[in-house]
Specification:
Elements: H1 2-16, H2 22-34, H3 36-46, H4 48-80, H5 90-103, E1 107-116, H6 122-131, E2 136-141, H7 148-162, E3 166-172, H8 185-189, E4 193-197, E5 217-220, E6 224-228, E7 246-247, E8 250-254, H9 257-273, E9 292-299, H10 307-318, E10 322-326, H11 334-345, E11 349-355, H12 361-368, H13 371-376, E12 380-384, E13 388-389, E14 393-396, E15 400-404, H14 410-415, E16 418-423, H15 426-441, E17 443-445, H16 448-452, H17 456-462
Parallel strand pairs: 2-3, 3-4, 7-13, 10-11, 11-12
Antiparallel strand pairs: 1-8, 1-9, 2-5, 5-6, 6-8, 9-16, 10-14, 12-17, 14-15, 15-16
Length: 463
């Protein structure tokens, strides 16, 4: 009894002396009071103690290559920084500055962007780009499945490695926990490098449920990049009946912003593999391939806290006419709810689109718990009924937009490593808005009467 009390007191004092989100602190203290020993053990394994340790360790390691990367981005900034672009209005320039300070990344001009609204076309486009690689191919994924789609990409990478192209594949250890390690043997035998981000094991950092690398990116020869919400696997091409057609929003980018994607990969690779890729050969002379303004924002617990949180709040506050949000997992906190409600109450049309059938049942009902408050604030809520909607998109006033890997929940906001692109282009925003509007026509609008039809068990799950 005395030992339990001492452990709870230690954990509580430690929590109170470190900066924590108030609701999180209360939840941890209640857990330790109700289940003293188990609560303290969980706090030591997955609470702020191991989280802060991981963040400090990552920061210390990245300091070794920060200087070299900073020089390259400084050169990019002198040539392609578009913050003073004349067609950016005052609110957009304010967002540019906020994103730059939160992520240390500038907005670049001269980019070409192709947006894929369907999952299937992404793979032929990415395969063709990898086929054209002459120097290196860098890939980073949260999930890489050992199925037909995964084997096709693996075999292509192995062939490119045998041809002399440098191939590096970085996978998240939790996202790929089901992958048989034998699946990667042909790739390694061909000379490619494969590493796992924060792996589990008895001799490594065993309990790493937080700080997962949720980014999805591909960089080819430092010139062409892919990013967005789509992982590698049959499931993400809609080839599994369980979820039906699978929808992701993914992008191919070509231009100076690709070097920012390369910078993100180089940092993550150095942390996972201890290999320095900051040499000139991985950062070729930036080339202008179009007229799109793009800002790449990498967020995570090792950077400025709550960077994605700031961006979302800024996006909502920036809206003058409309804001459209598409996300597979919507679990907002009170601040996000107030921000969305404030926009709706001042006359902004706020629309939220989520899937009705989700691969995360508990998260789905946690999100549904917020529906009633959203409807009371005149926010329009829609559920997509024709498959799994996995896109993460925000569109503001049909003049700028955000596409990336971050979900609208606290894990993406504060705990995981995410990658988001901000597209300061009315044409791209109109393209995304047209897709959003088309999906609304195939979705069911949620009204107060719908909530009343939920079963008692469903109501408990939602509230």
């Amino acid at each position: 009894m005395f030992v339990d009390a001492a452990l709870v007191l230690w954990a509580s004092l430690h929590m109170l002396t470190h900066h924590r989100e108030p609701r999180g602190m209360i939840a941890w203290i209640l857990a330790m009071l109700l289940l003293p020993l188990l609560g303290v053990v969980l706090y030591a394994l997955i609470g702020p103690v191991p989280l802060q340790h991981k963040v400090r360790r990552r920061r210390r390691r990245l300091q070794r290559i920060e200087h070299a990367l900073a020089r390259r981005i400084e050169v990019l900034g002198r040539r392609d920084d578009a913050e003073t672009e004349p067609h950016l209005d005052a609110r957009q320039r304010s967002l540019v500055r906020l994103a730059a300070r939160a992520s240390n990344e500038i907005v670049t001009r001269g980019n070409d962007v192709i947006i894929y609204h369907e999952s299937e076309p992404v793979f032929p486009a990415m395969t063709a780009a990898i086929e054209s690689a002459a120097a290196h191919v860098h890939l980073q994924y949260f999930i890489f499945s050992a199925d037909e789609t995964g084997r096709a990409i693996r075999d292509l990478l192995a062939r490119k490695a045998r041809e002399g192209v440098e191939v590096r594949l970085l996978l998240d250890a939790v996202g790929c926990w089901r992958m048989p390690r034998s699946f990667l043997r042909p790739l390694r035998d061909a000379g490619a490098r494969v590493e796992f981000f924060m792996p589990w094991g008895f001799t490594t950092r065993r309990f790493n449920v937080n700080c997962r690398n949720h980014r999805k990116l591909v960089v080819i020869d430092g010139c062409v990049g892919f990013m967005g919400s789509q992982n590698i696997g049959d499931e993400y091409r809609g080839r599994r009946r369980k979820y039906g057609p699978w929808r992701d929003t993914h992008m191919r980018v070509d231009g100076p912003c690709v070097l920012q994607l390369q910078e993100v990969f180089v940092e993550d690779w150095y942390f996972a593999a201890d290999e320095d890729l900051s040499a000139d050969q991985y950062f070729p002379e930036p080339r202008r391939r179009g007229d799109r303004l793009v800002q790449i924002v990498a967020s995570g617990p090792d950077r400025r806290p709550d960077a994605m949180y700031f961006l979302l709040c800024a996006a909502v506050n920036d809206a003058a006419h409309s804001i459209s949000i598409m996300t597979p997992y919507f679990v907002p906190d009170q601040a996000i709810m107030v921000t969305l409600a404030s926009a709706a109450l001042r006359g902004v049309t706020v629309r939220l689109l989520v899937p009705s059938a989700s691969d995360q049942w508990l998260v789905k009902w946690a999100g549904r718990a917020s529906y009633e408050a959203l409807l009371e604030s005149s926010i329009e809520v829609y559920e997509y009924d024709h498959g799994m909607l996995h896109s993460k998109v925000v569109i503001v006033d049909k003049r700028w937009s955000m596409v990336g890997s971050a979900n609208m929940d606290q894990r993406s906001f504060r705990l995981d490593f995410e990658l988001t692109s901000i597209l300061y282009d009315a044409g791209l925003a109109a393209d995304l808005q047209a897709d959003f509007d088309a999906l609304l026509k195939r979705s069911r609008r949620i009204r107060h009467a719908d909530i009343q039809t939920w079963t008692y068990a469903q109501t408990l799950a939602a509230g």
